[in-house]
Design goal:
Number of strands: 7
Number of domains: 1
Protein name: VWA domain-containing protein
GO molecular function: protein serine/threonine kinase activity
Largest sheet: 7 strands, mixed
Radius of gyration: 17 Å
CATH topology: Rossmann fold
Organism: Candidatus Limadaptatus stercoripullorum
CATH superfamily: von Willebrand factor, type A domain
InterPro entries: Thr-specific_kinase-like (IPR052969), VWF_A (IPR002035), vWFA_dom_sf (IPR036465)
Strand content: 15-25%
Shape: globular
Number of helices: 6
CATH class: Alpha Beta
Helix content: 25-40%
Length: 203
């Protein structure tokens, strides 16, 4: 029996992220293929039963309202590679404006994804968040159109990741998170407070 790997990319798609979005679009299949190849032995036998990829695209509720965060379905690799590439190619970097964005809300939606964890700790549920700015405090945009009424606060977000909130479907031992963000941000604070989260500082 192999393993199921789910990857959720939470991507800042505000105007300043144009260059980064271009890199994601150009290298997405290469990145996913490399993950697949790393788990394939010399005889060509894959250790992966299923590799799925999903996107959570975020901007700012103040400027974008209910369109501030959008989610894709899970795409199965390699069967859905063309659909996946078409989806991300259609994402343009725009908006934002005031600096911090609604990235913590995007992290919440990423955590609430319908992860596959049937094989326990053999599986992997990975969230990769990429941004070039800080995040608004959870709830700061609550008065804006489209802001989710069920949104948690910062402690609630940590509770989701820690497993104290049972409404998530990732495994305690199989979850991982990589955060690419500037230092001194709420993302770094989250990473320092939570296990199985790696923070990578960006400029």
């Amino acid at each position: 029996m192999g393993r199921n790997i789910d990857i959720v990319y939470a991507l800042d798609a505000t105007g300043s992220m144009g260059g980064c979005m271009a890199n994601v679009k150009n290298n997405l299949n290469k990145i996913n293929a490399e993950i697949y190849n790393q788990l394939t032995d010399d005889a060509g036998n894959s250790q992966i039963d299923l590799l799925r990829v999903k996107f959570v695209i975020f901007r700012d509720y103040k400027s974008e309202g209910s369109a501030a965060i959008t989610e894709s379905p899970f795409f199965e690799r390699p069967d859905d590679d063309k659909l996946m590439q078409a989806y991300i190619n259609a994402v343009d970097a725009y908006g934002g404006g005031d600096g911090p964005e609604n990235g913590l809300e995007a992290m919440y939606y990423a955590m609430k994804s319908d992860f596959n964890s049937l094989n326990g700790r053999k599986d992997r549920q990975v969230i990769i968040l990429i941004t070039d700015n800080d995040a608004h405090e959870l709830g700061d945009r609550a008065a804006c159109a489209g802001y989710p009424s069920e949104m948690v606060d910062f402690d609630g977000l940590k509770g989701l990741w820690s497993g104290s909130d049972q409404s998530v479907s990732f495994g305690e031992k199989s979850k991982r998170m990589l955060i690419f963000a500037p230092a001194g941000t709420k993302y770094e604070e989250f990473a320092k407070a939570c296990a199985r989260v790696q923070f990578i500082e960006t400029d």
